[in-house]
Amino acid sequence: MAVDAARAAGHLLKRELLGPRRIAYKDSPTNLVTEMDARAEELIVGRLTAAFPHDAVLGEERGATAGRSGRRWIIDPLDGTTNYAHGLRTFGVSIALETDKRVELGVVFDPNLDELFVAERGRGATVNDQPLAVSTTGTLDESLLATGFPYNIRQTTDNNLTEYAAFSVRARAVRRMGSAVLYLSWLACGRLDGYWELRLGPWDVAAGSLLVEEAGGRITNLHGGPLDLDAPSLVASNGRIHDAVLAVLAELRGNGAR
Ligand code: IPD
Ligand code: CA
Ligand code: CA
User: Fold this and answer.
1) Class of domain 140-253 (CATH, top level)
2) Mean pLDDT, to the nearest integer, of 27-39?
3) 3-state class (DSSP) for residue 91
4) Tell me: the pLDDT tens digits for 202-231?
5) In 3-state terms, what secondary structure has residue 115?
6) In sequence order, which residues have a C-beta less than 8 Å from that of residue 131 and are 6 or more positions away?
7) Quick one: which ligand is closest to 38's CA?
8) What is the pLDDT of residues 14-30, one digit of tens each?
């Protein structure tokens, strides 16, 4: 059901990409939303709630709906809205299923590359049905990293620019392509070695975190502790370079709980 919903939403987004579209600001000119975010979410939520009426749902656009089954769907209907609004084909759909607060299923669909990523807890992860695994890169020096910047970049000095500069000279390169969901998927299949970002939302991370874990990688908060899915600031990696990434962050940010 989740795979079908992710595919249907992805195909809808791809079909409408170049059509006329209204773009609005959520709270600032750096935080966009299009009517396609809501349309894709309606499609996904409509299918899931018809099939599982007692499950709770957390969707980025419509917020939380309670349920009594102990299960919760966490949905980012369009991750990479800024890219989408500019006609750039780097965006994805993310659907996760949580049972008793633990992510058990993660589905990510990239309609442009026609790549479907699926992870089930304890059963591994696949891309287009092929098993996937994180990279074996052993040093930060040889690593390809990714990051992003918070929407309130203009309002805060804790905006990741210092970290971006530091990793840019310590890693092979740092990419910034505007889709947290795709970064986590690409990390899971070994195309990226590491990824960090501050202040994401649960929908950005839920499905991708399981992809990373099931692919043999590691995902933590910025201090190496457990990821807080409700307010994720994260480091994700192939595991081998994780401590090196954490060490750079500790050097720049200290060990406080920011
Ligand atoms: C955003 C993207 C972006 C990240 C932002 C996210 P959205 O999601 O994942 O890469 O830097 O923090 O909010 O708004 O396009 O769904
Ligand atoms: Ca997102
Ligand atoms: Ca989104």
Assistant:
1) alpha beta
2) 84
3) coil
4) 999 999 999 999 999 999 999 999 999 999
5) strand
6) 124, 125
7) 3
8) 999 987 677 778 777 77
Q: What are the distances in angstroms from CA 182 to CA 112, 113, 134, 156?
A: 12, 11, 14, 26
Q: Which two tokens stand for residue 20?
A: 């006329």
What 3-state class would DSSP assign to 88? Answer: coil
- Confidence bin at 258 (pLDDT 50/70/90): very low
Beta strand residue intervals within 87-142, DSSP E: 92-99, 102-110, 115-120, 125-127, 130-131
| Range list for CATH 3.40.190.80 in the chain | 140-253
Bridge partners (DSSP) listed for residue 228:
none
Centroid of ligand 2 to alpha carbon of 180 (angstroms): 6
Give Dmax over CA atoms of the chain in angstroms.
50
Q: Is the CB of 41 under 6 A from ligand 1?
A: no
Structure tokens at 132: 């996937």
Question: Sign of the CA dihedral 214, 224, 186, 152?
Answer: positive
- Distance in Å, CA 181 to ligand 1 centroid: 8
**What homologous superfamily does CATH list for 2-131?**
Fructose-1,6-Bisphosphatase, subunit A, domain 1 (3.30.540.10)
Which residues of the chain does CATH 3.30.540.10 include?
2-131
Q: Which residues are 96's β-sheet partners? A: 74, 106
- Residue 37 C-alpha to ligand 3 middle, in angstroms? 7
> Is any atom of ligand 1 closer than 6 Å to the C-beta of 81?
yes
